[in-house]
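Protein modeling request. Please complete all fields; requests missing the sequence field cannot be processed.
Requester role: graduate student
Desired output: 3D structure, token encoding
Chains: 1
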Amino acid sequence: MKKTKEIIIDAFWQLLEEKTFNKITVQNIVERCALNRNTFYYLFQDIPNLAEYTVKLWADEIIQNNYEFGSPMTCLSPLVEEFIKHKKAFQHLYSSTQKDEFITYTNHVALHIVKMFMKQSSHYVTRSNEEKETLTHFYKCLMIGILIDWLECQGDYDLKLFVEKIYHLIDNSSQTLL
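Delivered output (178 residues):
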């Protein structure tokens, strides 16, 4: 059943790249997978349940696969790269009824990544816990704000370049943040 679940998830993300979330049907998914509807409903309650499961799975994979970081930029790069790689799908999720869940999981991923960076960075060792929490919150909010702005603008600017510029400006303007 694990393989079947993966096939359904892949089909869902393919369809999400092609059309809005609200236009995807169980019939679209099962036709793409060459499965029957009963198989889909055995594994998932409905499409919103599938969406929540896949976004959580995506978030967990980013966290698991990216635990060694060198700077705030490199620690958030995996998140930025995923958004760029699946631009249409994320735009469709962001503009869907699953928007809140999508933002919640993205927020969770960004927070975890920044916390992992903070634990490993020698720049933060001498900081008080309050300073560490403030900086963690700042970097998480910065990244989430940038990602949401990018989605709101329909991805009409180079996200990776913009994030690189932001961190360069922060790094050059205030070494006390780092």
